[in-house]
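Data availability (excerpt). The following record was deposited with the supplementary files.
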Amino acid sequence: MILFMVALALLFAIMLGILSYLGEFPKISSALFLCGIISPAFVLFYQIPDFYQIPDTLFNTFVGGWEGTSGIEVGIEGFTLIFLFGELIVFTLVGIYAVSYYKNDPKRYKFFSLILVMHGALIGVFMTRDIFNLFVLMELASASAFALVAISGNDNSNRAAFRYLLFSVIASYLFLLSIGIIYLNTGHLNFELIGEHIGRSREVDIAVGIAFVAMILKAGIFPLHFWLPDVYSESDTPICALLAGMTRRAPIYAMLMFTLYLPMSHMSDLLLIVAFASIFFGTTMALFQNDVWRLLAYASIGLMGIVLVGIATENTMGVTYYVIAHAIVTTGLFLTTGTLSDLQRTRKVRDLTYQRDIFIFTSVVMLSFALGSLSPSLNAFAKSELLEGLGGYYAILFQASFVMALLVMLKMNYLLWQDDGSRPHYKTVNIKSVVSGIPAMILIFLGLYLSPVFVPMDILIFVIAGALFLLIFSLNMLEFEGIEKLGTNFRTLGTSNNYYAMVLFTFLAIILIYTI
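Predicted structure:
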């Protein structure tokens, strides 16, 4: 029954494809699209009446009845259920937003169909218990993402989509190589059977190292983040929200499955180094961005390092809660800032203002505090879960990560608050601004439900971030442009791709030398 969640999304995608050949039916296409987005949620809630409870094991079945070593296992347990809830929340919000966004776009059939294909693929990713099936479904989601970026129609959409495609394919080959090594050593593709039969060996260590390089590249974590800022900045608002909110969660889910079933202790220290490097690189770069989406893109690169901290410490539930909290907050921020940039016809943060839209103003402020993981948001609860696995200097660096994230948000909000009256006038309330405000309310509600406690440490984090902001302001560095487009000044696409490929394979070599 749970497989209908995937089937329904793909079925409505096919129906939209057929409808596109029959003529222009905007209302019918929108209705079919929303049915495809929402119907998997009804299947899930039908299967799980008490969905507010998260038991250890819920469902476990095999496709086609082929059990054991011959079948493809799918299932939903505690942390996968949370991933599915997050996926359904993000796609429902973006789906409603996309109907309004693409209302008069002649390419809406393509966008709607591809979004539904991505929707179905990601649902499958979060249910599969088979490593090869995980690979196939991630590729289906990635293929939809490439196409959605390419048809967005911005100035450099094709260039960004090509780089995204190129390095995602390299990551896919690396992951497939890792799967092959694991299969040769265990004779199984089912994660549970792999865990039962695998042993620590040089070949297995190499396979795990290769797989993590592939997933770090797909997730856009430093130093393999280079495809991400251009992809975000050249996508339409709903597409960017989906890429930031959900597509990057698939490789994180793959990493979590590896930590549960494969030997990982030899990778922990190296992953922590990569994680904190990503955190401080991403947030520092975000401070010097004047394009609001590139600012959020680099902030996202940094905060995905926090996810990697949880993976390095094998904190499954902490990672799960933070991944979903980060998915909702980034979705909300890209929808709100995208709505502002569409209305005011600019993405320069110094030229935007949210003073004229109470929904967007409230949402951005609340989401900014959530991004800094201040209580009582879901992000704060996830931070407390992740902090349990850290001690010593790592715990101090971990708290400093949120100081940097909050500092970025203080800069963004300060500039968005400015309004010299020169911005274009627009209708202050519309469906897109209302939808954009919902993620903030979800995060606060879930935070209060899971942990209705104020954390005193949050005051210190806010004070330190505020002091650093005042220092940057006094030094006139709020609009510093010296490194705004670091790494983007190559003469040709080929030259830049060659440089990034060199970075990728150098990183791969370091990982392999470390694991050997």
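Summary of structural features: The mean pLDDT is 85.
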